[in-house]
Design brief:
Helices cover 50% and strands 0% of the residues. The protein has 84 residues and is an all-alpha fold. The protein has a domain of 39 residues. The longest helix has 20 residues. The chain is elongated and about 70 Å long. The N and C termini lie far apart (60 Å).
């Protein structure tokens, strides 16, 4: 997905909050002249703009479920282990 598509997609209330907080950090750091705060606020704002904020939102960390697996075992043999 291109950058413009990432900016336009996924706008939820949490994304608005993350962008707002990142912008607040950035504005406060620019106003007080702190370089480390400007870098930190810029990182927070950029990350919140270009990411969904959720690790598995795109389905990247899920394994596919095989729905065609119709072979279910009829009889399951259990073996009792030694009891105390």
């Amino acid at each position: 997905m291109n950058l413009v598509g990432r900016l336009k997609s996924g706008w939820t209330s949490l994304k608005f909050i993350r962008v707002g907080l990142g912008s607040l950090i950035l504005y406060s750091a620019i106003e007080s002249g702190q370089v480390s705060g400007i870098i930190l606020g810029g990182l927070f704002t950029i990350f919140s703009l270009f990411t969904d904020g959720v690790c598995c939102a795109g389905g990247g960390c899920y394994t596919p479920v095989n729905k065609n697996n119709s072979s279910t075992p009829e009889n399951i043999d259990y073996e009792e282990l030694g009891s105390k």
